[in-house]
Amino acid sequence: MLAVLANRTYRHLFLAQVIALVGTGLLTVALGLLAYQLAGPSAGAVLGTALAIKMIAYVGVAPVAAAFAERWPRRTMLVALDLVRAGIALFLPFVSEVWQVYLLVFLLQAASAAFTPTFQATIPDILTAEEDYTRALSLSRLAYDLESLLSPVLAAALLSVISFHGLFAGTVIGFLGSAMLVLSVRLPSPKPAAPRGIYDRTTRGMRIYLATPRLRGLLAINLVAAAAGALVIVNTVVFVQNCFGLGARETALALACFGGGSMLSALALPRLLETLADRRVMLAGGGLLALGALAAGFVQTYALLLPVWVLIGVGYGATLTPSGRLLRRSAHAEDRPALFAAQFALSHACWLLTYPLVGWLGAVAGLELAAFSMALLSLLALAGAMRLWPREDPEAIEHVHAGPPSSHAAGAGERHTHAYIVDDFHPAWPDSGGWIGRPVTMSPQG
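Predicted structure:
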């Protein structure tokens, strides 16, 4: 897995991701503790609302940012957004009202909504071999798990000598370190896409995503992960401090158990994905998530909470790590930023639903009902994924174009086979007879 770090450009980007996520992990712990300080037992509702605002920023900003990203050098854009995020994080230690939390979270995450899809879409352009990219996805999942594992452990150590307000300084350092590492490398510039209107550029990734069956299944799997993941992220502080009467360090340890489970998945997946299909691995992970959410409803002690959080972490890693492989095989290089932005927006739309839902259910109806509700939602979404994502999902598909011949290699009525990707000449998925629509552009050009 570590062999891909021999690539200097990827190595610097991976280290940038690690450093930024350590800072983000400190932010996650600090926000939970800040919410508890401001709202007490209602901290779950406050944190759930703050995270919902974060999701609104993600869903609304990512597609628009992707539409304009192709006009700017990637390195310049990524460095500028890191500096913006660091500047906003400087204000977080001075928050004294709940509304201030909401405002700063929105501004910070709007910048992240532009940064993350651009960053993710750059990796397949650096690591073009499928095996290398799979290893990079697992390393990326490990980096994300630092937010739930190493960062909370670091937070627990820091909390023994400083107040939680000091954790926000780690966030600033993380974003500045990320900017310096991105600035130290040259990033590839994929061949520019054909000139398109603003509507086409803003919605193109979403239209490719929703027209591809495996990605519609991925959307349902995103909802499974969001349901169980929101239960952990929003209500861990309430479980630990309000129900069990424990403190900040125990809260950090519980979050670390969730991250540890996800890390176990990331370590195992490169080998598993050599023999098992993405669909089977991701659906199995979804089953673990539903089981973990159900088990959370029966947890009565801190000692039982920890293994349940590990189980949910294992399922979480198994469902999300292979998603980049699906996106890579479902778009041409010039469309990848738009498709990654669509995945970013749609997956976070799932979190937009589950964050406030689990937070308010926990505050109003109790943690048991919140856990059982997330388990039911996970099961329904998992059933939807199994239906939307066909068991047989070949990369190359035999198909026939309707309409007159065009610059595409095959003319009307000529049956042919190639790796099938939704694009201007393939605007829809073939029906059972292999026919697709007229080979015209996906939308009017501007």
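Summary: The first strand starts at residue 396 and ends at 401.
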